[in-house]
Amino acid sequence: VGSKERHRTLLARGDMIRDPQPTTFGAQTAGRAFHLLQAIVASPVPLTLQSLAAKVGLTKSAAYRLTREMEEQALVTVTDDRTYVPGSALYALEARVMGRLNLRTVA
Fold it and tell me: How big is the CA angle at 52 (ends 3 and 93), to the nearest 5 degrees?
């Protein structure tokens, strides 16, 4: 089973995802941010910072730094009760991708 399929399965089950070992610092940071974003999107309920960090295997401070940047980019939104949900920029990206998607090619 490939890495992508494994991550999809883990997220679907709500399991924690560990980072693969990227070769560069920038790739590691991007991978961690992506895992956080995947966990937020896959969750049926908004997640606290602590539960989000635990789900992807990061410290709370590392998760905070990454989610803060994603919040600046509107990829995630912090609710009034300090939980994380997908942000407006993520929905905008989805709309652009879906508009370009050729369903015959993907299916």
Answer: 65
pLDDT digits (tens, 9 = 90+) for 27-47: 889 999 999 999 999 999 999
d(C-alpha 48, C-alpha 26), whole Å: 25
SS3 48: strand
> Distance of CA 64 to CAs 55, 70, 99, Å?
13, 10, 32
Q: Report how far apart, in Å, the C-alpha atoms of 82 and of each of 1, 11, 30, 37, 62 are.
A: 36, 22, 23, 16, 17
pTM above 0.85, yes or no: no
Cα→Cα distances 85→2, 45, 49, 93, Å = 28, 8, 11, 15
Structure confidence by residue, pLDDT tens digits, 60-103: 999 999 999 999 999 999 999 999 999 999 999 888 888 887 76
